[in-house]
Structure formats: C-alpha cells, structure tokens
Design a protein that fits this description.
- The protein is an alpha+beta fold.
- The chain is built from two helices and eight strands; from the N terminus they run E-E-E-E-H-E-E-E-H-E.
- The protein has helices spanning 50-67, 130-137, and strands spanning 5-6, 14-17, 21-25, 33-45, 72-80, 83-93, 99-121, 139-140.
- The strands form two sheets. It has a six-stranded antiparallel β-sheet, covered by helices on one side. A two-stranded antiparallel ribbon has the order 1-8.
C-alpha cells in the first residue's frame, strides 16, 4: 500500500515505502525493481484530456529514456485500474554501467500522476512476473 494506491509484488521481495512511493526489489544481483511514485499535476486531468496528455507523456518518456542513456523502443495505450494509460519501454544504464530494461506507465487521475516502473537487467525478462503483476494489480484507493 502507498499514498492512495496499492499493488501486489512477488512474495519475498523487499518492500520499502515512503510518503509518496513504494518500491519492491528482488533478491537477485543486480535486483529487479517495481515501484509506484505519486506526483502532483499542475493542471486537473480528466479522461477527456487523454489525447493531449498522451502527447505530453510521449515527450516525458523520451526525455527519461535519454537521461538514462537510452531511447524509447515501444509505446502503447493500455488499461490499468480501468483507465487508459500510456506505457513505454526503453533500455537504461545504471551508474555502474549495468544495462536495464525499463517499462514505465503513467496513471493520471485528477491532480495526481502515479508513475509505475518495472526495471530488470537486460535479458532477465519479467522476473517472478513482477511487471505483469504491478500493472495488473495496481489500484487507486483514494
């Protein structure tokens, strides 16, 4: 559980929460990670604004991938918690040079944005089904 959301993570993963985020890490080295982070939107989001928000999020995802030393390799509109969201895939590089495959999704509701992140070492796939579990189980609660 996090601030106004919940999701499931694989059993046995290490869970850490803050006032605005929850992260689950595998015990592998390097670890796989799933997380949800809450941000406040400057403008009120409504589903009628989805097309405009999607265009803006496409740029945000490209910038995030660029900062991580990669580029967006896939983007899609999908459904999480009964709402249309934008999701992206890109490869990133850690400060130690490890390459990761990232999947990030943006859940928008009112003045709230929740960023869903799955990160696993390149070639690891979806360890313990964590990414699928995050996107399938995520729910806004408040």
């Amino acid at each position: 559980h996090g601030p106004a959301f919940r999701f499931s993570a694989p059993q046995g993963w290490n869970i850490h929460g803050t006032a605005w985020a929850v992260t689950a890490r595998s015990h592998d080295a390097p670890p796989a990670i799933v997380s949800a982070d809450v941000y406040r939107l400057a403008r009120l989001y409504t589903p009628a604004r989805f097309a405009a928000a999607a265009r803006e999020l496409d740029g945000v995802a490209a910038r995030l991938a660029g900062k991580a030393g990669g580029r967006v390799t896939a983007s899609e509109t999908t459904t999480v918690d009964g709402r249309a969201i934008r999701a992206y895939r890109f490869t990133a590089r850690s400060a130690q040079g490890q390459r990761y495959e990232d999947r990030i999704g943006f859940v928008l509701s009112g003045r709230r944005e929740v960023q869903l992140l799955c990160q696993a070492p390149v070639g690891a796939g979806d360890p313990d089904g964590a990414c699928a579990l995050l996107f399938d189980s995520f729910r806004l609660t408040g």
